[in-house]
Design brief:
Its cofactor is Zn(2+). This is Putative alcohol dehydrogenase protein. The chain is an alpha/beta fold. The protein folds into 2 domains: about 190 residues, Medium-chain alcohol dehydrogenases, catalytic domain (Quinone Oxidoreductase, Chain A, domain 1); about 140 residues, NAD(P)-binding Rossmann-like Domain (Rossmann fold, 3-Layer(aba) Sandwich). The protein is about 25% helix and about 25% strand. It contains 12 helices and 20 strands. A hairpin with a 3-residue loop joins strand 9 and strand 10. Helix 5 packs across helix 6. The chain is globular and about 65 Å long.
Length: about 375
């Protein structure tokens, strides 16, 4: 047996255990990747501690846990073309069936059978099927992936930044749903988190002329404001006094913003999101990203009709979108040089979870290095 070291989740809410299992062999359309960087994000804590919810199902335990990974191709299956050993790659963990109507039109993120490998599937019986096929997550020295989920990364992109592409891609897709581009104004609710920092960088790259960031931590808000020339990013703390919607109107010459990207973390209040939606200009677009907000969004039929506002959910991204993001990041159009990487070995995996659980802010990139 050729072994490899992995971090397994044996019981919900318990620390992961590092052990050795057999290294997998790629099937005809599989790619075996040597994992150099595995990214941990705050939602990782929620998944391993809180268990399944109404909208998602977890893999069977024990599970080799972990979401996003970047590394180098070790081997490819006999029917794989266009990829080869030695390629530097990002492994997209969202695996879909490939043949349903959504997949066939390029929306694999809407696949009924889709799942985030070794993380969670959607909350239907179908959501469990593919979880069983690819049970090894990123917290391992090697993992298997369908070749369709492999994105080659250029030399200009750091491998640790590539390991963050799950959350970067989610924000990229969200801002496209918001219709962002040159001359647009965007509100980001939850701006100091993992998705929020990514959204700021992407909005700047898209050419948004004004970004209004709402968050809690004033030190991080000041850091975000400094990511662009003075006045292009304006921030506000949730602890600030005064009416939030009035502040937004003042910042947008009374018109309201073009878009709202709401990526508020777990425990947020949907009532605040409702107020932000009401602040949009006519024809404004909304993308709801994080999924941890409590409560309902309530708007009158007449308001939605009159204002012609579009509200979208966004959970992940398409293959086309992550390819676009990689091109723009690789060319320096979208800049993620602000990321501060914090490294942990596989043996330190539970320390890494503690670090991400301490909510260090979206500029901190918690990386587990399985080869260290």
């Amino acid at each position: 047996m050729t072994g490899m070291r992995v971090a397994q989740l044996l019981e919900q809410g318990k620390p992961l255990e590092v052990t050795t299992i057999e290294r997998p062999t790629p099937g005809p359309k599989d790619v075996l990747v040597k994992v150099e960087a595995a990214c941990l994000v705050p939602n990782s804590i929620n998944v391993i501690t809180k268990g399944p919810g109404p909208y998602f199902t977890l893999p069977e335990l024990p599970c080799v846990f972990g979401l996003d990974a970047a590394g180098v191709i070790e081997a490819v299956g006999e029917n794989v073309v266009g990829l080869k050993a030695g390629d530097r790659v990002y492994v997209d963990p969202h695996i879909s069936c490939g043949n349903c109507k959504q997949c066939r039109k390029g929306r694999k993120d809407l696949c009924t059978w889709g799942c985030l490998r070794a993380y969670f599937g959607n909350g239907t019986p179908e959501g469990k099927a593919i979880l069983k096929q690819y049970p090894i997550g990123s917290l391992s020295q090697y993992l298997l992936s369908p070749d369709a989920n492999i994105a080659v990364i250029p030399p200009s992109i750091d491998i640790n930044t590539a390991a963050r592409f799950g959350y970067i891609g989610t924000s990229y897709a969200g801002l496209k749903k918001c219709g962002m581009g040159p001359g647009k104004t965007l509100v980001i609710n939850g701006v100091t988190g993992t998705l929020g920092y990514a959204a700021v960088a992407i909005a700047l790259g898209f050419g948004c002329t004004k970004i209004l960031g709402i968050g809690r931590n004033k030190e991080r808000l000041a850091e975000i404001e400094g990511m662009a020339t003075k006045g292009r990013i304006v921030v506000r703390s949730t602890e600030d006094e005064g009416d939030l919607t009035q502040w937004i109107k003042e910042q947008t010459n009374g018109l309201g913003p073009d878009g709202l990207y709401d990526c508020l973390g777990n425990g947020g209040d949907a009532g605040g999101t409702s107020k932000l939606i009401s602040s949009l200009k006519r024809g404004g677009r909304v993308a709801l990203a994080a999924g941890g907000v409590a409560g309902d969004i309530t708007h009158s039929y007449g308001e939605v009709m009159e204002q012609d506002v579009s509200v979208n959910g966004t959970l992940w991204f398409t293959s086309e979108e992550i390819d676009e993001a990689i091109e723009l990041i690789g060319a320096g159009v979208i800049d993620f040089s602000f990321l501060q990487h914090k490294f942990f070995s596989l043996d330190e995996v539970n320390d890494a979870f503690k670090a991400v659980g301490d909510r260090p802010g979206g500029a901190i990139n918690i990386i587990v290095q399985p080869q260290a």
